[in-house]
What we know:
With about 425 residues, the protein is of the alpha/beta class. It has 13 helices and 16 strands. It has helices at about 5-15, 55, 65-75, 90-100, 115-130, 155, 190-205, 230-240, 295-300, 320-335, 335-350, 380-390, 410-430; strands spanning about 30-35, 40, 45-50, 105-110, 140-145, 175-180, 210-215, 220, 225, 245-250, 275, 290-295, 360-365, 370-375, 390-395, 400-405. The protein has a seven-stranded mixed beta sheet, sandwiched between helices. A four-stranded mixed beta sheet has the order 1-2-3-15. A three-stranded antiparallel beta sheet has the order 13-14-16, with helices on one face.
Amino acid sequence: MALSPEELLKRDAAHLWHPYSSVIRSDPVYPVRSACGCEIELMDGRRLVDGMASWWCVIHGYNHPQLNAALRAQLDRFAHIMFGGFTHEPAVQLAARLVQLTPEPLSRVFFCDSGSVAVEVALKMAVQYQQARGYPERQRFISLRSGYHGDTLGAMSLCDPITGMHRLFAGILPKQYFAPAPPCAFGEPCAPEDLAPLEALIQRHRREIAGLILEPIVQGAGGMRFYSADYLRAVRDLCNAYDLLLIADEIATGFGRTGRWFACEHAGIAPDILTLGKALTGGYLSLAATLTTEPIARTISGGEAGAFMHGPTFMGNPLACAVANASIELLLASDWQASIQRIQRGLMQGLAPCRGLPGVADVRVLGAIGVIELEKPVCLAEVQRQLVEQGVWLRPFGRLLYTMPPYLITEDQLARICAAMCRVVADQYPR
Length: 431
Ligand SMILES: *Cc1c(COP(=O)(O)O)cnc(C)c1O
């Protein structure tokens, strides 16, 4: 029995939570009938160009025939099997691929359900590692301001303390140490002073620090900031010098978004622990992975527990792994670098008219990510309505109007997204 759009919205309002939403003062939601390629069709028949890739995930567009086929083929074999005591081809193949594609020393893959859980797994790996080599007091982490690492408690403790609302959860969040956000922009050099506060923080607390976590090159949901590869290299050097683990959270940046397979490649560095998620399955199913090196994995395994202490029920889900394999194959078979460069050029061109407009603090583009930073926060409901009227799907937050479209977006579709963004800016700040 199909619900009418009105009935659907009524029941939604009665029973559902949406991300970061209130049940008292709820923002509008738009019922979707279908989605194909870079287009989303609403139940009222309106069509929207997708500028969000459903939060970085849907890199190949919606309803992709090859991804659908991979999922169906696995469905006909088995949808799920416990990973304790069993193994299967989709997981084994995916692990081998990830090891091959990620920086050299990463060789062990732990699969889990979502990005936030992959971050929790990374933290537990770091703590068990330090414990196993005789530093049980090293249980805290250094993170960067303006960062975002997920919504579970451990991951949340590493998000920017202000935008992450640490005050609300002060009694339950583990206490971490925060360095200033990287002050040097992408493409620019870093001065030694830029790293001084971070080094001072490490020196002060090194005895309690297990590792340092960051989003390489692109800080996503914490501010959409692009920072210098020099900074990332310098952090790698500091972690080496002070014997800390470097955790790179590539959940948003992985799989080509910034113009490289992984954002760490911009700096030519390898982390000790890497988290992946979001685009891993091409946006089909929730799957994430935490990778580490053989020496770290072996040290953990030789510790007091004799094992790594984590094991989600849906670990290595075969449907998710099968579609992730198909998504990676699609990416490898395509000229994805040319697509990202084409999108980068389109975004630079399309967003250029906004530069210098009243109310615009900054316009920046990196790879297939385009950002307009405004001087004041926008009203989400109002701006989203304007965008939908123009046939474009975006979801601004705070002062940020931004897009990260699927890689197969056409020039025309991209131009429409950019024009809608510029129009929103002009409407917000009429001359
Ligand atoms: C989205 C995101 C996460 C959390 O992933 P979920 O799948 O939403 O739990 C963690 N880190 C970064 C950098 C992200 O962008």
